[in-house]
Design a protein that fits this description.
The protein is an alpha/beta fold. The chain has one domain: TIM Barrel (Alpha-Beta Barrel), CATH 3.20.20. About 25% of the residues lie in helices and about 25% in strands. It contains 5 helices and 11 strands. The strands form 3 sheets. A 6-stranded mixed beta sheet has the order 2-3-5-6-7-8. A 3-stranded antiparallel beta sheet has the order 9-10-11, with no helix packed on it. A hairpin with a 2-residue loop joins strand 10 and strand 11. Helix 1 runs parallel beside helix 2, helix 2 runs parallel beside helix 4 and helix 3 crosses helix 4. About 35% of the residues are buried.
Length: about 190
């Protein structure tokens, strides 16, 4: 089996989820968000087909990484491939984050007819959901580009069958190191 990637895996990221992470950049996205920072990943025929066995070999060689992040593109457009990679990475002790232009609720709805979506979602620990909205762009959001996007604890959310926001990412660090919450430095 192969996966279509926009680029080879990028290790040592500190902006694509908590800790030091390796990012898998999937190719192909139906959302076409205005202001997207990766428009080159939209084309479903772009990028390159890479054997999943090769991706696993790269993961085997990683050092000093806390987790794996799926981004893109839209990872949930290749759910079977992403699920297989995520399951393998979890077996090695990595935590899994995924970005998606779909909301958690949309993914649950799609998962009713596409088992592969639920298989992938079940391997994800944290989901950053929702389309990037240029009018809501903010440099003060941790691990997301616009304020409408949510950071969701997937395990709790699947159990509750509703989105459970991970509150620890709502407090935004300021430039001087103090925490900022709702416009007030604490």
């Amino acid at each position: 089996m192969t996966i279509r990637l926009a680029a080879y895996l990028q290790s040592d990221s500190i902006v694509d989820g908590e800790g030091i992470r390796t990012v898998i950049w999937t190719q192909g996205c139906p959302h076409h968000c205005l202001g997207c920072h990766n428009p080159e990943t939209w084309d479903f025929a772009g990028g390159a087909e890479v054997p999943i066995s090769e991706v696993k070999e790269i993961i085997d060689g990683l050092e000093g990484q806390d987790g794996l992040t799926f981004s893109g593109g839209e990872p949930f457009m290749q759910p079977k491939q992403c699920a297989e990679i995520a399951k393998y990475a979890k077996s090695l002790g990595y935590n899994i984050w995924s970005y998606s232009g779909f909301t958690f609720e949309q993914l649950l709805s799609l998962g009713k007819t596409k088992k592969e979506i639920m298989d992938f979602l079940n391997e994800v620990d944290v989901l950053v959901d929702g389309k990037f909205e240029l009018s809501k762009k903010s440099y003060n959001c941790l691990f997301r580009g616009s304020t409408n996007q949510r950071i969701i604890d997937v395990k709790k959310s699947l159990k509750a069958r509703k989105a459970i926001i991970d509150d620890k990412y709502e407090k935004v660090p300021s430039k001087n190191g103090r925490k900022r919450q709702e416009g007030v430095y604490i």
